[in-house]
Amino acid sequence: MSHSAVLWVDASRCAQAQRIFGLTTLERLRRSVAQLLPDAKLIVDSGEGPVGLRLARALEAHGALVVLDGSAVIDPRLLRYLAGAQGSLVASRGEGGHSVVALRLDADRAAAIDRAAASLPALAQQLIDAQQARPVDEQSFPAYIDKLRRVLPYWLFRVDDPAARRAVERQLFLDNYKGSTDLLTAYVYPPLVWPAVRLCSLLRVHPNVVTILSIVLAFAAVPLFALGHWLAGFACGYVMSVLDSVDGKLARLTFTDSAVGNVLDHGLDLLHPPFWYWAWAQGLIVHGGSPELATVALALNVIYVLDRIVLGVARRRLGHALHSCRPLDEYVRSFIARRNITMTLMALALLVGQGAIGLFLVTAWQGLTLAWHAWRTAWNGWLSPVRRA
């Protein structure tokens, strides 16, 4: 179990590894262990001699070990998986000089270790060939990531040169996008989010700073919308929307996410849309729109709250987000009534001088979204043949 796990890290090659998002590979490893296995014992071995000799001695001294390469970029999920596993296992990725392994070894494997082995990949292959260890079963690895609503096989990377570093950073960035998200987040924002994440990581900007800036912009937009200052209001809105993609990825990529940050981020996502909807109506009324638009905004907010309640019921019933149930749910998530979509509908309507029609369209789209979510919650949660079975 993870509470008694001992992690042994070969740090002899760490000086050759490139920094990833401003962190050394060893610091990334320390942070991921502190986050996922806070009670585990971490042994960093940068001593002299072949890795086989040092590992055999560590097995004799400490018993079963999770064995890691401190110069590699290691999937944090793999740490938890190996720490909770039984038997001697080898997780591997890459070939030749790019090969990286992570192992879980029983204490009695000390006798099978080739003390002259110069690298962990070579040692791992020897153990597999001698039937002293077996490869990790890919099907048994928990590849689904609830926070990202997607399935990702575990990964291991070597980053010995700048080209490898750039490729790995880009891959990790893309892997941190949610499996189901809106069109703007998926296709429009990445060229803006990528350099922002890189810059913030290099400057050691904490994700909570980005989140707080998002909050300021989200609520600065409210009086601007209410007074009909549409250009300034939507400028705040779209910058805030981009930053909302930056903070989460920055937190996950630098292992700096926190309970406070999660509350601020998700709280902002939940709370600001009703203020915007009310302010849109007020801005239209100030500039000669019908006072009845206030009633439309009220209806929009009621529908929005009901939709959020339905999504909460779905998560409680299913144990995961509704939009990760089926490919259809994932597809529809890209254009349902969420902030980026409703904001764009309203901005386009104002651009052609039809703000009131835009507010009606947003309300209708939110209503259709509520109906869709209610149906999919009922189907996936109670009515589908799979659920009934």
Structural features, described:
The protein is an alpha/beta fold and 389 residues long. It has two domains: 2-140, Alpha-Beta Complex (Spore Coat Polysaccharide Biosynthesis Protein SpsA, Chain A); 176-388, CDP-alcohol phosphotransferase transmembrane (TM) domain (Four Helix Bundle (Hemerythrin (Met), subunit A), Up-down Bundle). It contains 15 helices and ten strands. The protein has helices spanning 25-36, 51-62, 76-83, 120-129, 162-175, 183-188, 190-202, 207-226, 230-254, 259-286, 293-318, 327-332, 339-351, 355-383, 385-388; strands at 6-10, 41-45, 65-69, 72-74, 89-93, 100-105, 134-135, 144-145, 150-151, 156-158. It has a six-stranded mixed beta sheet with strand order 2-1-3-6-5-7, with helices on both faces. It has a two-stranded antiparallel sheet with strand order 4-10. Strands 8-9 form a two-stranded antiparallel sheet. Helix 1 links the parallel strand 1 (6-10) and strand 2 (41-45). The longest helix is centred in the last third of the chain and has 29 residues, at 355-383. It is elongated, with a radius of gyration of 25 Å. The protein starts with 5 loop residues before the first strand and ends with a helix. The model has no long low-confidence stretch (mean pLDDT 95).
